[in-house]
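INFO  loader      accepted 1 record
INFO  loader      residues=1192
INFO  predictor   begin
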Amino acid sequence: MGKRQFRGAENGDGPRKRQRVVHEAPTSEVIHTSRQLRQLLAFDPDLGHSRHGLQSFKILLDSLLARDDETDNAEKRQQHEQRFTIIKEYLQSTKPIEDDESATYLPDIMQTWSHAGQVNNENLLSAVPVVLALLLKLLSQSLELTPIGLGICRTLLQKRQQELISRSLSADKGKAFIISPTLRMLREAVCFDGGAIARPMFRARASMLKSLARNMGIVHIGEEPEDIKKPSPRTNALQFFLSAIKYLHPEAKKELLAQRDVVTALTRDIKQDQPYLVLDLLNGLRDHVLLDSKVPREAKSNLLNSTTLIKISGLYYYRLVSDNLPSIPDAAHDFLMTACTNPSCGVLRQDTGLYPREADPNAAIPSADLEELGLEAIVWMNKFKTEVPVRNFVLSNLLQNLRPWSSLKQSELITSIFKVAPELIADFFIKNKSFTFEPKLSATWIGYAAFLFNTVALPLPEYFCRGSGYAELPPPTSIVMDNILPLPLNQKALSRCLTNKSRMISFFATRILILAVQKLDTAVKMHQDPAHSSKSHNNQTLWTEAARRLVDEFCQRSPGIKEMINAYRSIPEDDLLHREAASQLLRLYYEVIPQVALMAKFDVSPLLETALKRLSTQERQKETDSQEDGSENDPRDFALSLKELENLLAIAGYSPGMRWFAATEQLTLSPFTTLLKVYVEAPSGVSLAPVRQVLHFVAAEQQVVPAKDKGHPGISVLLESFKELQTSSPACVAVLWPFLDKCLTRCTTAPVKYLEMLQDLGAKGAEDEVLTVSPLVAAIIEQLPFAAKAADSKSTLDGLSRFLPRFLGYSAAAGESKPLLEAAYASMSKHFAKGLGKSLSVPKKHPFKQPKGGKSTGTKSQDTNNTTSEGKKIKSGDDIAALNSDQLERVLDLPDSLAADNSALVKWQSKSVDELVDEGYAISLISLLASEHASIRKEALINILKMASKVQQSEYEEKEQIWLLLSELAETAKVAAASQPVSAVAPLPSTIIAFACHAVNVLRDPTHSLYPKVNSFLTRGPFWSVDRVPLADEVLSEEPAAGDSYYAQLNWLLAYLLDGLRTSKDLELFHKKRAKGPLFERLLAVAGNPYMRTPLKIQVIRILYRATKIEEGSTTLVTRFGVVSWLEELLKMKKSLSPMAQSQGGGAGTGTVVTTEDEVAVYKGLLKRIWETCDRERVEGWSKGGVEGVIA
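INFO  predictor   done
INFO  writer      dumping tokens
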């Protein structure tokens, strides 16, 4: 087959291939004058001549822009000035005559540029923008030539120039030598004179912004880094965009950012950009878009879409490094922190806390549905377990692309977003299931564990939402639970972590659980907030049910209490930090969810003994080290061990089987004595307040020390004695512990025995004084003979000879009976060869405040006062004698209605509900809450709850009210117990117990005048405030429901107030400052009413008499309420009345006051009683002798 013939030109001599394009280097010459420059730049159809002139001009501009006035010498500076003069003269010579918008600057260059476009000469199409960009950059440095520069910029906006610019910007991607100079020229133009023509340039955006998004995609190609002197079109396009964003007005920015292709192209190839360009981009967008308050939020949202944020987050893995620039990952982190956590940046949307987007927290639900279905009546309550609709969907998409386990900064970013948008926590863990919490000791697992720890540590939103108060409906339990324990922290994973052999894994799990339980406690308290009681009753029930469901869900997701106990037991003894954390976790379980903790039947005694033994070992080691080389152990180790001990002591307080005074094989001393030893021998600088509280509580509970209501400082006497002896003779203290432990153990096993011994030791009729002395004194007397016969008797007796004088002296200083202590001192001295000393010495300086103003034990002063109070000073009723103490007691002292009858614990169980309420069995059981014995109070509380359940299930007519009263009383007792250092059923104020007893009689009689007020009080909240006196304000200040029932209600109030005034704590409630005045002050004002009936007035007098029987009561009445003046005024009121005038009614009980003469005698007797029982020194100093002048 023959060859095909070539179909070329007619002559057959045409070229067979496409001609090769050859780019010849332009020629140039040195410019010496402006005339020469003008000739070179004059328009010439010869394109080679035009290119020669432009290249010469470029070299001249480059030399001027490259100058450095600081380093150049005088000759170079002169050359620069000459060259600048050439350009200046050239520009002046080419300046148009009329300077308007249509004027054309540099006409020769513009004509050459236009001609190059017509003939399609690419070399000139590139050279002209290069020269113009350099010229504008030079002119921007001269204030004198700024008008010419602005004229050149306006020339670029003319139609012909816009067409050339548009053509150059849309050139083929391979012609970067045309695109890049054009972009540089536009950047210099938009920046010129502070963006003077930025606005007109944006109006011409059809040409000026032509193919901007495409040009941003023309990146540098090659293995070598991009040359900063020859930037790619992308670099020039980004710099032009950033300059435009800087100088454009807000509306123009909004329109520019609305172009999706431009916004997408900004960050498409950001990971390949040079460090300086990435920094410029991040800083420019942050400063001129995000932080510009004038830019609309919509424009910011268009910029920071999911794609942009994900691309920027990819800079966390940016690898290029520049020595002179900040770190790119750090800059990206700062940008994302600002963009994602600042609501004004357009990304973060206002959420509704833990309520998802589709949930209406204030929806109205029919009450019938709520009563029947409870939380199930809320259609969205169980809807969000697998998917959570969120408002911050952009942030949600960003979070799914972050890896918090691989970068601390990413972890910080996520937790910061969680903090400002808590709705994303549940959404994040539901969607992100790529990583589990299965224990595996690696850097990845540790990073993920740290991230989960920081997430759990985040606080719950206030009110669960963004409002100013709680919503009507509780948030979905699943979402609250995911905020407390995120989904990866399930029961299986946490259990494996706790039992893992790696200490770090177990420690991480323990710390996370501590935060979770604390967070659960906060959430439950928010569910139980009293603010919910202002809503309807059904909504309050919903919140309570939601709290219960939340606790149940937490128990299902967290490990079992037995696993935590076993994990704690397996921790090595030397891992103090881990042991402290594990003990704190167990303590939190006992305090927050005791129903779970108590299921394990955890015996804390062995662990407590181990902790005490470790502390003792550390103390001995400290002493050994200091004796050998003067070194000391780290005090932080002792502090951690002590903190662990505090946690175990708190758990022991919740444990009913704790044996405080029983020695074991591990400990030679009982736990209480060992704890006492730790306190005494602890190094300085360690906080011992919790240990001291426990010692006080246990000692008082076991009746080792006198009760505090008698003014005794408790265990402080023993502690101060040992502390002083430890300072002077540490060796003596060490030998005393076994002896003291034996005495303390015997005190707790038979306290009555030692009280009888003290009675035998004292004088007859000194029973009251016996109660002020510690039974430990009698136990020491009993055990001294045995100690003297022991093998180590010499060292023990030597230590006791130094300890006992201090102990007995401090006991006397603390207010214990000195005669009894002196008798005990004499009895103890017999067992010492040299005795203890001549007599008991009471230290003058001591930390105890001895109570003053107690009951007077003498009778002579009473007889003397009788002779002076019958008519000399009291001006009213001179012929009426005051009642003596016995008579006054028969008239005013009523039996204690709250006296404990322990048989009530058993009697009520066989009675019907009618008998419980009507025959007083319920009242007798309630009264046991005032018992001085904690065990009785605990049994009473349990039986009250059982009685409440029995009442609720009965057919009793008023069962709901009685059940509510008993339940709220029990809840009040629990709240009071929670405030104790060691959990116990704390003694409630007597006013609370008395109110409950009297309220039972009101509730069983619907016709009672106080029936509405008592019911209203019971519906206010789930428990009562122990700092307030129930219904006092309602009776004293509000009008009665029935018009003539005021005095009946007042009589009921005074009766229960009298029963409720028994201790010094009760007295504090009566004189505590309140909005309407102290209660005592209001009662005195009520009794001052001249029309009040005598029985009611005598009831107030009985309350005052009851106050005088309490320590410091009389002093308080005189100095704070002026009771002497008040009684004096009552006597004056009775002066004009006939002694035989009949009163308006009779009182109850023996010694009833029936006449005015009887009233006067009672008032005088009360004045006498107050003077006898008050702190006379204080009263005389307060009144400057005035009170004594009235009474004495």
